[in-house]
């Protein structure tokens, strides 16, 4: 058995690509438009997984955008995506500067949670040992839910 991808439906492809690529740092590795089915699939990979993705089509995040509007609710019941980052503080600063709410700040220097434009929880984990706690993160309260 081999893990291939996680699929999430998105309501605004541009907003989702901005979040996952521009702010979170994933890379688009391929895209498929299906005119008959009226949907677009966009596959993303973490930069360190790009070579494996090109070779194996895994591990990836698949964004599914249905061209006809649909309401998606309950992003929380999906669970969450998790990504290891080199510097959790820098990742959270980049996301926050891009207008993303840090729902669970990295008070411990190790873990944070944010949400995609469609309400999907995304967990960020510090690579290696936790960083020393630092402000403003150490005293920042949770915002909303994750």
Q: State the separation between the terminal residues, measured CA to CA.
A: 30 Å
Could you name the ranges where pLDDT drops below 50 across 5 or more consecutive residues?
none
Q: Biggest sheet, in brief?
A: 4 strands, mixed
Relative strand content: 25-35%
Number of strands: 8
Give the % helix: 10-25%
Would you mind describing this structure in some detail?
This protein has helices at 13-23, 50-56, 75-78, 88-97, and strands at residues 5-10, 27-34, 39-45, 60-66, 80-85, 102-104, 111-115, 121-126. It is α/β, with parallel strands linked by helices and 146 residues long. The strands form 2 sheets. It has a 4-stranded mixed sheet, with helices on both faces. The model has no long low-confidence stretch (mean pLDDT 92). The relative contact order is 0.19. The radius of gyration is 16 Å and the shape is globular. The protein is built from 4 helices and 8 strands; from the N terminus they run βαββαβαβαβββ.
Question: In a nutshell, what does this entry contain?
Answer:
The protein has about 150 residues and is an alpha/beta fold. It has helices spanning about 15-25, 50-55, 75-80, 90-95, and strands at about 5-10, 25-35, 40-45, 60-65, 80-85, 100-105, 110-115, 120-125. Strand 6 (about 100-105) and strand 7 form a beta hairpin.
